[in-house]
Specification:
This protein is 20% helix and 19% strand. By secondary structure, it is an alpha+beta fold. It folds into 3 domains: 56-61 and 63-148, Immunoglobulin-like, CATH 2.60.40; 152-528, Alkaline Phosphatase, subunit A (3-Layer(aba) Sandwich); 541-650, Arylsulfatase, C-terminal domain (2-Layer Sandwich).
Length: 651
């Protein structure tokens, strides 16, 4: 009787907040009252094991191009690499390629890398229904492999919003079904730790200084993204059936279409997608029955492929997305074409409606009522509660103030718990989706990727909440992969950046990358192991942030909507992250004190909390000069120019 009475009352309770705030109400549909008891692994998540110290060979016998990838045991091959495919031998030397019948293969071989790949046109390898391969490294005994022809793999890309790497501990199904069944890139990083620029990098393979989406707000945002050449365009042309569901770029729906100054984009479908169900960020009048938003967890509206809307009002967004994905996967499995499904959750990003247990001054994600308080006994303090800089941040730029108050950190603790609750619902959705893939018979031939657009501060660096700045909690993201050719339960320490997804997916699907990109394919790293035998890396990892306020205002005067500057812009804070160091430079704003610190250098191995700024140590002047040279080159690089390597003493 009490439950029925409560359901009636809650179903009618709607309280409008003056001033345009969230609508405050509680939903009972799809929202059982019984509190959920969370079940987490008894021990902390084991990230996996390193690659075995032996030569590994992977043969990709799918698609129009077949390839042989090799990872040598402990050091790069030196004299000769002989690759025999169905009796035809290709001999590689560091000076070039020779062989009995090379048939014009393409070779990817970096002298400092343990990885080498040789690509052949299918017509060059004779009967390709079965490939028999032998690889001899510097005259050693050949390593053999056999690969039957297989269909090109499907891809399921799962992205969440604002998830930290340590949030993975609250997602047991993601750990069990993806991480432990595949590889964990422990150095996943956002090229720009902010939703819109990071997502533009994922789509385009470009750093922000090249794609030009510098912020989620005007004059940038969705309208500033040139979406004419993105990975969905490339893989669609290669024969993939592409589907998208969920959050896209900020202001999608409410902002004009790319290249336009007026109107909305509620019915705009970006190029490259066969089936588009992106969530709109407004764009419809409040009186419209289809009015809904990306950040309204119980009132989301999707663009239904440019043919009207899908109204999810009354359904909790995460669960609704799982339901829709189930239908998409069933239809995709019935097709002869490989599929690419991009599923983009809003959780754990803050969003409405505002709930009665929310802290007063911190925005939180909405959760089903059954999750309220589920992590109260699990999470005792916010991650940043113990972050205490010994010198009160006197050696840091002025932007980084003192430590948050105890009152503020109590609110951040509440936020931390609510974020975990929202992610736990995503975790349940992932379990359902993996089960659906298995039931359709497509799981074994599907690359499943789980990641986030950027991380999030929860008290670290004196920042109660937020992102953007390139310190560890904001910069780092989970990157997990399972699928055909991906070994189980291994870790990768090579960096995986936002700009790398486009090349990786194009590589997997034998798609032609139509325009130069800044990122690289990490497919061989996922399949075989890191480019180096150590945890250091040779790659330059650039991180960028929004330009200065002065630069933003100047551009907004001439281009108030969808700004695309013809000149190379720079972020206010740009940095280089290596296996050992974080180096940053801050550009001055008008009115900044002359005493403001503009350089930072942290040894993240010895000082993972990034307390001590080594840039103030005169003994570090030589390494600072070297980092400055690398940064100057990286923050203006374009395409192949971005592939230059770190000097050896910075690795």
């Amino acid at each position: 009787m009490q439950k029925n009475k409560r359901a009636l009352l809650v179903g009618l309770a709607v309280v409008l907040v003056a001033g345009g705030g969230y609508v405050v109400y509680e939903q009972v549909k799809d929202d059982p009252v019984t509190k959920t008891e969370v079940v987490l692994p008894q021990s902390p998540y084991d990230s996996g094991k390193d690659e075995p110290r032996k030569t590994r060979v992977y043969v990709d016998n799918s698609g129009p191009t077949v390839s042989v990838s090799v990872r040598t045991a402990a050091k790069p091959w030196n004299d000769r690499l002989a690759i025999t495919v169905n009796g035809r031998t290709t001999n590689l030397t560091r000076k070039g390629t020779a062989g009995t019948d090379t048939c014009g293969p393409t070779v990817v071989a970096e002298p400092t890398s343990l990885l080498t790949r040789v690509n052949f046109e299918r017509s060059c390898v004779g009967d390709a229904s079965t490939l028999k391969v032998a690889v001899a490294v510097d005259g050693a005994k050949p390593v053999t492999a056999t690969a039957k022809e297989t269909p090109r793999p499907n891809v399921l890309m799962i992205m969440v919003d604002d998830m930290r790497t340590d949030d993975l501990q609250y997602m047991p199904n993601v750990q069990k079904l993806i991480a432990k069944q595949g590889v964990n890139f422990t150095n996943g990083m956002a090229s720009f730790p902010l939703c819109c620029p990071a997502r533009a990098s994922v789509m385009s393979g470009l750093y922000p200084h090249n794609h030009g989406v510098w912020s989620h707000e005007p004059p940038w945002g969705f309208s500033s993204f040139d979406d004419s050449s993105t990975f969905p365009v490339w893989i669609q042309k290669a024969g993939y059936h592409t589907t998208y569901l969920g959050k896209y770029l900020n202001e999608y729906g409410s902002a004009p279409e790319p290249g336009k100054q007026t109107g909305t984009s509620t019915q705009y479908v970006p190029p490259g997608w066969d089936n588009w169900q992106g969530s709109i960020d407004g764009g419809l009048p409040p009186s419209d029955p289809d009015d809904g938003g990306t950040y309204r967890y119980w009132d989301t509206t999707l663009n239904d492929n440019g043919n009207g809307y899908v109204n999810l009002q009354g359904k909790y967004q995460t669960n609704a997305y799982a339901d829709i994905t189930e239908d998409i996967l069933k239809k995709s499995a019935a097709s002869d074409d490989p599929f690419f499904h991009y599923l983009s959750f809003t959780a754990p990003h803050h969003g409405g409606p505002r709930e009665s247990d929310d802290p007063p001054n911190v925005k939180t994600p909405a959760r089903p009522k059954r999750m309220w308080g589920a992590f109260d006994d699990v999470i005792k303090e916010a991650p940043g509660a113990s972050w205490k800089d010994p010198d009160r941040q006197k050696d840091k730029p002025k932007r980084l103030g003192g430590h948050p108050s105890k009152k503020k950190m109590k609110e951040v603790l509440n936020l931390t718990r609510q974020r975990a609750e929202a992610l736990y619902v995503v975790d349940g959705a992932v379990k359902r989706i993996i089960k659906d893939l298995k039931q359709t018979g497509e799981l074994d031939n599907t690359l499943v990727v789980f990641t986030s657009d950027n991380g999030y501060f929860l008290g670290e660096q004196g920042i109660p909440t937020g992102k953007i700045l390139p310190y560890e909690p904001s910069l780092r993201v989970p990157v997990l992969m399972r699928g055909p050719g991906i070994p189980k339960g291994e870790i990768r320490t090579d960096p995986f950046l936002s700009i790398d997804y486009a090349s990786t997916f194009a590589d997997l699907g034998d798609a032609k990358v139509a325009t130069p990109v800044d990122g690289r394919s990490l497919l061989d790293v996922a399949r075989l192991g890191d480019e180096s035998a150590t945890d250091s890396w040779s790659r330059v990892v650039l991180t960028e942030t929004t330009p200065t306020n002065a630069a933003k205002k100047a551009l907004a005067k001439t281009q108030p909507v969808g700004a695309r500057s013809p000149d190379m812009m720079l972020g206010k804070v740009t940095g280089i992250r290596t296996g050992q160091y974080l180096y940053t430079e801050w550009q001055a704003e008008p009115g900044d004190p002359k005493t403001n610190i503009r350089q930072e250098l942290y040894d993240v191995r010895a000082d993972p909390n990034e307390y001590k700024n080594l840039a103030l140590d005169p003994r570090r002047s030589a390494i600072l000069r070297e980092f400055h040279k690398v940064l100057i080159r990286a923050r203006t690089c374009v395409g192949p120019e971005c592939e230059f390597l770190l000097p050896e003493d910075l690795r």
